[in-house]
Write a structure and sequence with these properties.
The chain has 242 residues and is an alpha+beta fold. It has 2 domains: 3-68 and 202-240, no CATH class; 74-198, no CATH class. It has helices at 3-27, 204-240, and strands at 37-38, 41-46, 57-62, 66-67, 74-76, 83-85, 90-94, 100-103, 109-110, 116-117, 140-141, 146-149, 152-156, 159-161, 168-170, 175-178, 185-186, 192-194, 196-198. It has a 6-stranded antiparallel sheet with strand order 15-16-8-7-14-17, with no helix packed on it. A 3-stranded antiparallel sheet has the order 11-12-13, with no helix packed on it. The chain has a two-stranded antiparallel ribbon with strand order 1-4. A hairpin with a 2-residue loop joins strand 12 and strand 13 (152-156). It is elongated and about 85 Å long.
C-alpha cells in the first residue's frame, strides 16, 4: 500500500471523528449551560522506513478535545427555580456516590421532600455545603443566590469557581469534575439571575458551516482512496504482463 493511501485513510478517519464532534454540538445546541468541546486537525510526520531520511508520510489526526467555557447568552424562562450564572462560576451538584460535580445548567426543581435538585435528580448544594430544602417553589432569589420565602431567608445557592478550568473534564452531558482532585473556591462575587437560563455556547450557523466543509473534505478523501486503489490495481495488472 502506498504512503499516499495511508495519508488518505488517516485523513478520512480524522474527518469522521470531526463530524462526530460536530454532530454532538448540533444535538446539544438547545441544552441549557452546555459547553462545547473543540478539536483541531494536526499532522504527524511518520518516520521513513525506506532508508531515505528525507522521506516520510504525513498522517492526520485530531488534537485532544478542549472544553470551551465561554458563557452562552441568557434566555428568559419564567420558572422561579431557574437560575442563570452571569460571568464565571459553577453550581455544585452532589452525585449519587457522594462526590461533587459542577455545572452551569440551572433549570432546577423540587423533589418530594422539597430538596432543590437538578434535571438528573441530584441535590444542588448551598453555600454552607449542604442540601437546600424549600417550603415551595414560589420563592425569590437574589443575585448572590440567597433564597427568600416572603421575608424569610430559607437558603442560598452556592456558586464556585476554579482558578484554572482546564482541570475539568466532562462527566456526563452538562456536568464537569476536576481530573486531579483540585477543589474550587467559593465565588467571592456570585451573580445569578432568577427565571433565566444560560443557553449553550454553540453557534448554529458556524456549526452548520463546519459540517458542510467537513463533509466535502471527507468526500474528497474517499475519492483519493479510490484513485490510490485503482492505481494499485493497475500496477498489479502491469506486473502480470509477460
Amino acid at each position: 500500500m502506498s504512503s499516499g493511501k495511508y495519508s488518505a485513510i488517516s485523513g478520512a478517519v480524522a474527518r469522521m471523528q470531526m463530524l462526530e464532534n460536530i454532530s454532538e454540538h448540533l444535538a446539544s445546541a438547545k441544552v441549557p449551560g452546555y459547553k462545547k468541546e473543540m478539536v483541531a486537525f494536526e499532522a504527524k510526520l511518520g518516520e521513513a522506513r525506506s532508508g531515505m531520511a528525507t522521506k516520510g508520510t504525513n498522517y492526520t489526526h485530531l488534537t485532544k478535545p478542549v472544553i470551551d467555557f465561554t458563557p452562552g447568552h441568557i434566555e428568559h424562562s419564567g420558572d422561579p427555580l431557574d437560575l442563570a450564572i452571569s460571568g464565571d462560576g459553577f453550581f455544585r451538584i452532589q452525585r449519587p456516590d457522594g462526590s461533587f460535580g459542577y455545572a452551569r445548567k440551572g433549570n432546577f426543581t423540587l423533589n418530594g421532600d422539597g430538596t432543590l435538585i437538578d434535571t438528573n435528580g441530584y441535590p444542588v448544594m448551598g453555600t454552607g455545603g449542604g442540601e437546600i430544602t424549600l417550603p415551595n417553589s414560589d420563592v425569590s432569589i437574589d443575585l448572590d443566590g440567597t433564597i427568600w420565602d416572603g421575608s424569610t431567608r430559607v437558603g442560598q445557592v452556592g456558586l464556585f469557581r476554579f482558578a484554572d478550568t482546564s482541570v475539568l473534564k466532562r462527566s456526563g452531558g452538562e456536568m464537569f469534575i476536576p481530573v486531579d482532585g483540585t477543589q474550587p473556591e467559593a465565588h467571592p462575587n456570585p451573580k445569578m439571575s432568577q427565571q433565566n437560563l444560560e443557553a449553550s455556547n454553540i453557534d448554529m450557523m458556524k456549526t452548520m458551516t463546519r459540517m458542510t466543509t467537513n463533509l466535502r473534505a471527507f468526500e474528497a478523501t474517499q475519492k483519493a482512496l479510490k484513485i490510490y486503489s485503482d492505481m494499485g490495481t493497475k500496477a498489479a495488472d502491469i506486473g502480470l504482463v509477460q
